[in-house]
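Data card: per-record layout.
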Amino acid sequence: MASRFSKYLSTSAGDYRTDRDLQNILRNLNREIVKINGATQQGLIRATNKIHQETETGGVRVPVDLGNLRHSWFYVTASGTIGKGGGKGHTPEGNAANFTDKNAGQIAAGHAALLTESIGKTKALAATYKGPFVVAGYSANYALWVHEMLGAHFQRKGAGAKWFEIAIKTKQAEILKIIQSNAKIK
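The structure for this 186-residue chain is written out next.
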């Protein structure tokens, strides 16, 4: 059962486990989103794209080794839309061509399964709360592990642990403005 404040934006990191700090940041963000009358799906998608942009170009970026973690980014809406950070939508079968190395097939299968599961989650939330929802995150099964690797040195310049958490925290004011500017007047 979803709590009152898991409304609107939710995350996924491979197997739905997320760290407590990230959940607290999301809970606080969702408390603020609840205060915005008429939040729309489009506003939530644009806000999600802002978070993704920050993970790619901000002060702390998503780590890249082969690129599989980076390519596993996705968002899913309550209407069943599947997107990849500002790019065109895709199907649950995903974009296997973006995954590389000997585990590409396994990563693509996990990606497709998580997208399908996330669609179900957003539809259930929409039915329960009668509102727009977005689930976003990284489908790679090791995403949370890498996210929590404090003190690690990553190959990509500017990459670091907690990149997703930091992106949300850093861009919270902009996220709220985006959602507010896309809200419907009731």
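Known properties of this structure: Strands lie at 9-13, 73-77, 82-83, 134-138. Residues 1-8, 12-17, 85-91 have pLDDT under 50 and may be disordered.

See the next section for split statistics.
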